[in-house]
Design brief:
The chain is an alpha/beta fold. It folds into two domains: 3-115 and 298-326, Quinone Oxidoreductase, Chain A, domain 1 (Alpha-Beta Complex); 129-268, Rossmann fold, CATH 3.40.50.720. It has nine helices and 15 strands. The protein has helices at 44-51, 121-143, 161-172, 187-193, 202-205, 225-233, 257-261, 276-289, 307-315, and strands at residues 3-12, 15-24, 33-41, 67-75, 85-89, 104-107, 112-114, 153-155, 177-181, 197-200, 216-221, 235-243, 265-268, 299-303, 322-326. Helix 6 (225-233) links the parallel strand 11 (216-221) and strand 12. Helix 1 (44-51) packs across helix 9. The longest helix has 23 residues, at 121-143. The relative contact order is 0.16.
Amino acid sequence: MGTFRAVRIDKADAGQNVALVDFDEKDLMDGDVTVRVEWSTVNFKDGLAISGKAPVVRRFPMIPGIDFVGMVESSTHPDWKPGDRVILNGWGCGETHLGAYAEKARVKGDWLVPVPPGMTGREAMAIGTAGYTAMLAVMALERHGIAPDRGPVVVTGAAGGVGSVAVALLSRLGFTVIASTGRPQEADYLKGLGAAEIIDRAELAQPGKPLGKERWAGGIDAVGSQTLANVLAQTRYGGAVAACGLAGGMDLPTTVAPFILRGVSLLGIDSVMCPLPVRREAWKRLASDLDRGKLQTLSNEIGLAGVLVAAPAILEGKVRGRIVVKIP
């Protein structure tokens, strides 16, 4: 037993205190696998947790960070042995269970999936929970029969983490991708990922008609609120939209019109408690269907201390693509 470096959130009278500290290993929570963490990421939920702008953290003290890649140090779980390289996404880490922004983590072996063969830890976290969520959304659209010959697919919040990987995935799979963003300066970046058309998020952010012109066969929405309502209203007959985020709000000011007059489907995407077989399939697909050459383009690297600066920036929409956290 010893200490290691970790970001810790403590409850305070005025909200919470966040600092990079020495954390005692004996204070790790129960679990049957101890992992030496090598890489993590900064996701929108991590930004909410560290800023305290939403009640993401539900126990204190908390080590934030909802995903990591690392090497198994010790294990009593039958599926894992020392030296195995593993990925964790979600399962309440960084919320109710001590999370990823630390040199060590102790978790349940049932929460882990193997790093795909040939994929580096940095690549896995350049994908991270955002990219894994994007893959879940793509798989949901495919199950609904949305294929490239059905027409274009829109991606909202396209310059963010989920959006960037979604654009890269969909274009690699042959879809014509319409990327919606509020950052016109990122047009070249998005076209480099495979977007065929860029639209201003203002087109979707204002109240619209219950039914608009049919523009796309499907969509992946990371924004929610009025944006999702307009995406649904402009989806073609029999189309589907996968919803996986709330950067624009939790409300959904829509009507039943798209659902009962055009047969549109709204597909909910949950990455936190997603069953293990689906997780494994998603990571298998990410290894085969994502152009990993683009991961360098859509990711930036920081150290553990940089998380404290990156967290508020991601909430302010100042982060392009993915942030990879090198630990230690």
